Amino acid sequence: MQYINNIRQYGLLIVFGIICLIISLITPQFLTISNLTIIVTQVSINALLAFGVTFVIITGGIDLSLGSIVAVSGVTSAMLAHPDSYPVLIPIIMGLLAGLLMGAFNGFIITKSKIAPFIVTLGTMTIGRGLALILSDGRPVSNLSDSFNYLGSGTVLGIPVLILIFILVFVLCSIILNKTILGRYIYAIGGNEQAARASGINIDRVKLSVYSISGLLAGLAGILLASRITTGQPNAGAGFELDAIAAVVIGGTSTAGGRGTMAGTLIGVLLIGVINNGLDLLNVTSYYQQVVMGIIIIGAVVLDSLNQKSTS
Amino acid sequence: MKYSYLILITLITLFAGCNQSTDSEKNKANKIVIGISMLSMQNEFIVNINDEMLKKAQELGAELIIVDAEHSSLKQIEQIESFIAQKVDVIILNPCEYEASSPAVAKALAANIPIVNVNSATKIAPTAFVGSNDLESGKIAMKFIAEQLGGKGNIVMIQGLNGQAAQIQREEGAKEILKEYPGLKLIAQQTAEWDRSKSMDLMQNWIQSYGIKINAVFAHNDEMGLGAVKALQDAGMKDKVIVVSIDAIADALRAVKKGDLDATVFQDAKRQGAGAIETAVKIAKGQKVEKELMIPFQLVTKATIKAYLK
């Protein structure tokens, strides 16, 4: 199993490398430290969402509420982050809590009602958007403190805070998925839920955990987005869930569940970022950008599945 | 399952019944009832127009039924149909789209209910129009850039969602001015879908590819203008690049005051909202109104900012 996964990522890495090579041959600005830093900063918010939803997708579920959770947590934290109001830890904690609660709500309804995650999280998506608008009265929440804004644009030892958080979250998620019992249960449920249940795994608790993690990370993403653009926007994050799911799928995680890795998702996220950046550098018209992006998503998955057939 | 349908149908009939009874109450009170369909209540500017309408309606004693079309012209048409069924006195339409919202206007006119367009136009002319011409805002913004640059330099343009009336007209207006200044070059244009973080990403990427060649940025709305300002500040380039955007939202006014944003173009939500209600009430009372009430755009710079800050 591990062996096959390694081969699959190898194939994806080659695709990633070829695309980077092509872009850097056409435009010399691509392969510079400053541009690479910008790419990683730009993908970090999508990365947090993608890491979270990777857990969910491996259990065979889906989370469509990510973008709305980003908006709720962004607005919540921004409302508490005005200068001279609260210490910066308060908006951060409340933003995370908002995300965690919405994720736990997803998990609770999915496990108790046995309704498909697609439908439950579609509902939460709409509820969340409404909540964000109610909280903010339909207006962007601006005038945030410098210490709050530091999260999204500050640096530590020359490295942007966003990138540090991105790396930290990646390491933590990889450990959870590969080295813990929870990680093993997540694969087991996605592989065969009946068998997992028969072997005594508490399915409900695992599912509640994965949706909570997904919500928590979306909450973190919302805080960082608000900090980066120095406002909490009630309509922020619309469609983010699709970018995140695209990255996960490009990264080789099966939407049927049971198969996937954090490293794959990481490459998927970077691939999307590199393509977006490259097309902007080349000043490709936005109409074509969308078509190119779609072709690359499908292409990556097709290559990946061919690769998988040849190894199995 | 069958039972739930039955319950649903009963509920709908009940609600429909409720509606009718409130309708007749309204007629008894002889208050002017105005049905209003708004483009999107997720848009700050539209929310501002909405607030001004409510204020004006209270002043004039009109009753408003306000619904949100959520950017869907199909939904908007359905809303107008329901206003017609409710027999409101006047309809105010804040159109989602130029072409696709036109059937809504046609339906109201066919039902002999006067309809007032606010903020943007439709292909079929309504009873009256209250708003501004977006072409003008693009011209004002680009004219300011041209003057600041002395008619010579490189410009990048950050566009709204492609295909929307505001995006098309702001681009056209800007390009009309560009034609008058052969020394100005539009070196790149791209959409950031009205979104601040997308605009910031785009500007970062452009800074990588064009760097100090960029002399000015024209963004189709303030959200994107502020995103570009942030990217330029992070790159330490803001002093050398002029950024101009449109709408004059509160955040943008603050940025103009601080000198971060060089200029924004003020679209008068207050006069648009209040004007629409006044026009609608006049029509309902059978008074004469102007067919087109044009509210002019105004350029807001650091020199003129005082008049716009509340």
Q: Could you tell me the radius of gyration of chain B in angstroms? A: 22 Å
Q: Largest sheet of chain B at a glance?
A: 6 strands, parallel
Overall geometric form of chain B: elongated
Oligomer: heterodimer
What percentage of the residues of chain A does DSSP assign to strands (E)? under 5%
Strand elements of chain B, count: 12
Helix and strand element order of chain B = HEHEHEHEEHEHEHEHEHEHEE
Terminal CA distance of chain A reads 10 Å
| Radius of gyration based on Cα positions of chain A | 19 Å
| Proportion in helices of chain A | over 70%
Main beta sheet of chain A: 2 strands, antiparallel
Averaged pLDDT of chain A, please?
90
Q: Report the count of strand segments of chain A.
A: 2
Q: DSSP helix count of chain A?
A: 13
For the biggest β-sheet of chain B, the strand order reads: 2-1-3-4-5-11
Distance between the termini of chain B: 56 Å
Model description:
- The complex is a heterodimer of chains A (312) and B (310).
- Chain A is mainly alpha-helical and 312 residues long.
- Chain A has a domain at 43-237.
- Chain A has 13 helices and 2 strands; from the N terminus they run ααααααββααααααα.
- Chain A has a two-stranded antiparallel ribbon.
- In chain A, a hairpin with a 2-residue loop joins strand 1 (155-156) and strand 2.
- Chain A is globular, with a radius of gyration of 19 Å.
- The model of chain A has no long low-confidence stretch (mean pLDDT 90).
- Chain B is 49% helix and 20% strand.
- Chain B is elongated.
- The longest helix of chain B is centred in the N-terminal third of the chain and has 28 residues, at 2-29.
- Chain B starts with a helix and ends in a 9-residue tail after the last strand.
- In chain B, the strands form 2 sheets. Chain B has a 6-stranded parallel β-sheet, sandwiched between helices.
- Chain B has 310 residues and is α/β, with parallel strands linked by helices.
- Chain B has helices at residues 2-29, 44-60, 73-86, 102-110, 134-148, 165-180, 196-210, 222-234, 250-258, 269-284, and strands at 33-38, 63-68, 90-93, 115-119, 128-131, 153-159, 184-191, 216-219, 242-247, 263-266, 292-294, 298-301.
- Residues 17-28 of chain B have low confidence and may be disordered.
- The interface between A and B is medium-sized, with 34 and 30 residues.
